[in-house]
Hints:
Elements: H1 8-25, H2 30-41, H3 48-61, H4 68-71
Amino acid sequence: MPGITLDPADAAEIAETLTLLTQWLSGSHKHVLAESFAAFIGHPAYDTGTLCTDLHRFAFLLGATDGEDLFGEPAP
């Protein structure tokens, strides 16, 4: 499979969007969003907590974080 090149500015913008979504899902409307997400997905195995973990992982893979959200205490 050929390599994929992503401009660093584009990677940073994608990572910022992933971080924004994670913060929104974890914010003050967390319960309402979790219920809506569960209704949309239709299966309890994938919830907003799992989604946030995936978003953190993608941001880490883009080089935007040091992985503390995945492997330790959340970064400030």
